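The data are quoted verbatim here:
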Amino acid sequence: MEITLQRLKIISHEEEYSEKKWVKNWVKNWVKNWVKNWVKNWVKNWVKNWVKNWVKKWVKGLEKDNKNP
């Protein structure tokens, strides 16, 4: 009887540990994905805006060249 109770305690402790581990991993993965997506979107938007501004300046330069041959 004593051995069975000890085993039950060990099993319940392992389940509790496993649940904590699962929650910890879930939170870690959620944060990691959130940060990764935020950085990815920030870089994507920065590059998009940089290219857009560069193209605008380039087009203005072409228009200036066409007006003053």
